[in-house]
Amino acid sequence: MDREETIIEGDSLSIIKKCNSVRPDKSLVGLYIQDIQRITTKARKLRFEFILRSENNLAHVLATESLRRREEVYLVNDVPIYAKGKARDESIREPD
Predict the structure, then answer these.
(1) Tell me, what's the pLDDT at 93?
(2) d(Cα 25, Cα 85) in Å, to the nearest integer?
(3) Terminal CA-to-CA distance of the chain, rounded, Å?
(4) Are 14 and 3 spatial neighbours (Cβ–Cβ below 8 Å)?
């Protein structure tokens, strides 16, 4: 299956910069960054982008609800029913 470009958004600018960097990271999260960089070299069309925390509400809903429900969530082409309203609201605000 050939995927289109995948964009991973995050509201931590320092982490996004580290994920996009090619230099080794020696911070406390360095090993995680190395794992991310290793995975991204295998992915053809993958990029990391910074998003303001105020614009990251859907991720917040997904994280808090999945923790509360004690369930793992894998997003492939859709979001769980409890997040559909938030996803719809965010897609209305985003220009194409």
Answers:
(1) 58
(2) 38
(3) 24
(4) no
**Token pair recorded at residue 11:** 């509201």
Q: What was the pLDDT predicted at 9?
A: 87
The pair of three-digit structure tokens given for residue 96, joined into one six-digit string: 């194409």
Strand spans (E) along 1-96: 6-10, 46-50
Q: Fill in the amino acid letter for 31.
A: L
| 47: β partners | 7
Each domain of the chain, given as residue ranges in start order, spans 6-51, 56-93
- pLDDT, tens digit, 9 for 90 and up, residues 29-62: 999 999 998 888 777 788 899 998 878 777 788 8
Q: Name the 3-class secondary structure at 11.
A: coil
Residue 16: pLDDT over 70? yes
Whole-number pLDDT of residue 77: 75
Q: Which helix (DSSP H) or strand (DSSP E) does residue 89 occupy?
A: helix 84-93
Here the tokens at position 86 are 């938030």
Sign of CA dihedral 34, 25, 43, 71: positive
